[in-house]
Amino acid sequence: MADEFMVYADGGTAASAPSNGVILIPDNLNVIFSANAAEVKYNGLLIKNAKGTMRINNGALTLQQTGFDIAGAQVGMDANYKSTSTKTGLFDFHLTAKEFDIARAYKEIKLFREMASSASKVKGVVGLDYQLSGKLNAEMFPVYPSLKGGGVLSLKKVSLMGFKMMNAVSKATKRDSLTNPDLSDVQIKSTIKNNIITIEQTKMKVAGFRPRFEGQVSFDGRLNLSGRLGLPPFGLFGIPLSITGTQEKPIVKLKRNKEGKLEETGENK
């Protein structure tokens, strides 16, 4: 178990010792070896069939061409990790997954669940190609305000049953066919910085309509999106949209969004 290598994993030797801490990498090692682990348990997460090249040098850990199974999906990853104290660390990784079940990932992966809280009722298959860096706390979990990165989420075949934002768009535009839509072949490009996810213009096809969206979503669920609902048959004419409020209570207005950007709350402002 990776958790057992964390500082104070056993509660320390003194009564006053802290109860947690990051994994410390020795400064005096310079080794390269092939890793092959049937199971790795880390922060309540079960990683299976992990294989790749691991290098330890100057107190840093590097993983290259690492493959593993998580939540039933095959994942590829390159990553770097270094402790900066007994309770803090730095990381960066590039992760790719051609296909994974979004409902299973939401259930089993805490980081995914907390960063994509609106996906609680989404079902289907998606792909991911994302790069992320940031700080780790004493529980070896990312410090959200420090996260920076970007990449692509590919919706292979997804059902947005109960997705409140799309249902609010359906109600505002009086187009019932937009309620609980099924999507496929949608590429969502985004970047992350200072607790804000910025989404590039994303185009979809739903029941003859051609909606598109772009804007920002905060980690606490605030929305600041603009869009257009392209009308059949070709989407040449459309209805402008602005979407504000929160993921739980989206506010849709049939006009262009002229509001400013969401307020950033991170440490890199």
Q: Any descriptors?
A:
single chain; 269 residues; mainly beta; 13-stranded antiparallel sheet; 13 strands; AsmA-like C-terminal domain-containing protein; AsmA-related
Description:
It comes from Pedobacter riviphilus. This protein has helices spanning 102-108, 110-115, 164-173, and strands spanning 30-42, 45-57, 60-70, 73-83, 89-101, 123-136, 148-159, 182-193, 196-203, 210-218, 223-230, 238-245, 250-253. It is mainly beta and 269 residues long. The chain has a domain at 190-259. The protein has a 13-stranded antiparallel sheet. The radius of gyration is 21 Å and the shape is elongated.
Stretches where pLDDT is under 50 for at least 5 consecutive residues are: 11-18
Helix/sheet category: mainly beta
Global morphology: elongated
Distance between the termini: 37 Å
The biggest sheet, with number of strands, parallel, antiparallel or mixed sense and barrel status, is:
13 strands, antiparallel
Task: List the total number of helices.
Answer: 3
Mean pLDDT: 87
Order of helices and strands: EEEEEHHEEHEEEEEE
Spatial ordering of strands, largest sheet: 1-2-3-4-5-6-7-8-9-10-11-12-13
Proportion in β-strands: over 45%
Specify Rg, calculated over alpha carbons.
21 Å
Roughly what percent helix? under 10%
Number of strands: 13
